Amino acid sequence: MVAFAQHKIPNEIASEAKIALSHYPELARTPIEFKFKKHIKKSTMQAQPKFLSVFKSKKNRAYKILISEKIKIVDSVYYTKDMPSEIMIGWLGHELGHVIDFEQRSGLNLIGFGISYLTSKKYIRGAERRADSYAVAHGMETYILATKEFILEKAGLSQKYVDRIKNLYLSPEEIMLLVEERDMVTED
């Protein structure tokens, strides 16, 4: 385990996590623990506030990013730590987008977020698209697009999983539109 200021990161993904975190300077002092987990239902990674920190002020919250140890792709099992760096950085960047979203919410709003996320597919879609949008706004589009390409075209994931990703997350075309909009604003 490597610790960078407020961040606890497994050695296997330390370089990728540092790159993803470098895109989010506002999280430099935010306690975030990256942690491998045997299995995460319906997901590869999951960002969430640490339980008791929901009741603390925004500036005193801590977060964890759970990372599934392995992914089953068709008939093969791949260990997440062995994913190509660019893909891992994109996944972590997306999860850090969730942390940015959480940072803006009150404790009560976070509890509502959790309940809505568990009960509403429409709410999940909005949350996942916001996380992608935050990642793009933080200059991570290359990594996010590489991750999407891997999931949608190269990984050999089940059609059901691919369809779920297409439905819930921004498409590559939507990401490029966000990049164009962001770049137009920075040119002004």
Defining key terms:
two-stranded antiparallel sheet; alpha/beta; 7 strands; five-stranded mixed sheet; 7 helices
Characterise the protein shown here.
The protein is α/β, with parallel strands linked by helices and 188 residues long. It has one domain (2-187). 52% of the residues lie in helices and 16% in strands. The protein contains seven helices and seven strands. It has helices at 14-22, 85-103, 107-119, 121-137, 141-154, 159-168, 172-187; strands at 2-4, 7-9, 32-37, 45-49, 63-68, 70-73, 76-79. The strands form two sheets. The chain has a five-stranded mixed β-sheet, covered by helices on one side. Strand 2, helix 1 and strand 3 form a beta-alpha-beta unit. Helix 1 (14-22) crosses helix 2 (85-103), helix 4 crosses helix 7 and helix 5 runs antiparallel to helix 7. The longest helix is centred in the middle third of the chain and has 19 residues, at 85-103. The radius of gyration is 16 Å and the shape is globular. The protein starts with a strand and ends with a helix.
